[in-house]
Amino acid sequence: MTHDRIAEQLLELAVRAGAEVAEVFRSTSRARPLFFEANRLKQIERIDSEGIALRLWRDGRPGLAVAYGTVAPQKLVDRAIALSALNEPETVELAADTSKNDYPAIGDPVEVEQLMAWGKEATTRIRDVYPDIICSGEWDCEVESTRLLNSRGLDCSHTDTTLSGYLETEWVRGDDFLYISDGQTQRGSLDPELLADRILRRLEWARESAPSPVGRVPIIFTAKAADMLWGTVSAALNGKQVLEGASPWSDRLGTAVVSDALTLSQEPEQGPFSCPFDDEGIPTRPIVFIQDGVLKLFYTDLTTGRMLGSGTTGNGFRANLNSYPTPGLFNLLVKPGKGSIHDLIRNVDRGLLVDQMLGSVAGITGEFSVNIDLGYRVEKGEVVGRVKNTMVAGNVYTALKQVLEVGGDADWNGSCYTPSLTVEGLSVTGRKA
After folding, report:
1. d(CA 403, CA 313)
2. Can you give the pLDDT at residue 4?
3. How far is residue 288's CA from residue 294's CA, in Å, rounded to a whole number?
4. Which residue from 164, 177, 256, 331 has the highest number of Cβ atoms inside 10 Å of its Cβ?
5. What are phi and psi of 51, to 5 degrees?
């Protein structure tokens, strides 16, 4: 019996067992990661996984059971029924049939030999310039398939193929140890030359050491470092946080919450984190959350949307098979401005360029105090050296109201498409100039 047929059988058995409604969520993945260590290919792995989750309501009480690999349908149904007896009744939140169920596959797989060639190319490009540097990395092609069906007629599925490359370098100079890393996630192809050049630029900036600027100075966040800011924004836009009163923007719809230089959106068909439907079977759609600094919309799942009275935005996702859907983002795009990172640097007379941070990042409160793992002093429009023993503290919401400039160099950092940007109002402590 195929895994797909088991999905249908689970629905049939759940109804026979007395469930009013039921849902089956199936996920499979196939990955072929290869690893470089100390400038050489170390190992190639094969990782295959599959899992299936049955969610049902009996007497209005929800029950969720999960199995990985081989599935015994009746046992899974019995487990879900037994668990439902332990829960309180709740409103059933299931999507009905949609007009479009079978979505085309996205992305193209590549062979292990191609991944190997990309890894060697990136490593060679770094070591041609810095022979003493030790390079490590991971290159992967992952194919993921999702199918969601329920007893209300919904049956939707899609498959996507994602390529990823990650490169890290270690540079030891006497007592000084420098660690720099960067990565790419794309569909179709990777660019090892671009990845290596990003690291080479950071290595060049780090040739000299410089004292930290102290006090309140302009901070340039690279696209990689800016992710800290957008993590807090994502939390503030979460409809569940709004419902619980935890978001500081709960009552700010239609008002300015950040600088008018910022526009944030989600785009279902953009980038390597595109997604045609959420984990509740609702088609995803383009959404502008913040336009020119003004808050337009929060993102929700079926339950949160019903309780807020706004309806779902198609953003109900599971953290894993054992989880119920909750509001989540599949991608977040920050509208780029103009100019490169070098242009942002040229416009700062005295400040700090931040690329890598250590320690906990800001939560929903926006307050943070982090150590700079990789940062550079900027003087009169130029990077003059790497700083050490430096901390930056401030508040994300305050900083985003004081954006001085947004770069045009947007790139994917995880599932966030973000440019570099310059902000003021943050406090820097460290070695004095």
Report:
1. 29
2. 61
3. 10
4. 331
5. -150, 160
Residue 127 CA to residue 80 CA, distance in Å, equals: 55
DSSP assignments along 142-192, one per residue: EEEEEEEEETTS-EEEEEEEEEEEEEEEEEEETTEEEEEEEEEEESS---H
**Strand order across the 294-295 sheet:** 294-295, 287-291, 264-266, 332-334, 416-418, 411-413
pLDDT value at 431 more than 90: no
Q: Tens digits of per-residue pLDDT, 171-186?
A: 998 888 999 999 999 9
| Helical residues (DSSP H) of 17-160, grouped into ranges | 73-84, 112-129
User: Phi-psi category of 145—alpha, beta or left, where left has phi over 0 and alpha has psi -120 to 50?
Assistant: beta
Phi and psi for 304 in degrees, rounded to 5?
-65, -40
Tens-place pLDDT, residues 252-278: 999 999 999 999 999 999 999 999 999
List, in order, residues 6 or more apart from 424 with CB less than 8 Å away. Answer: 216, 217, 218, 219, 399, 402, 404
pLDDT band at 425 (very low <50, low <70, confident <90, very high): confident
Per-residue pLDDT band at 152 (split at 50, 70, 90): very high
| Helices (H) then strands (E): counts for the chain | 9, 23
Report whether 364 contacts 246 (CB < 8 A).
yes
* Distance of alpha carbon 133 from alpha carbon 330, whole angstroms: 36
Helical ranges in 297-340 per DSSP H: 302-308
- Model confidence at 3: pLDDT above 60: no
Q: Which two tokens stand for residue 55?
A: 């969610």
CA dihedral (117, 118, 121, 122) positive or negative: negative
Residue where the block lists tokens 């439902």: 84
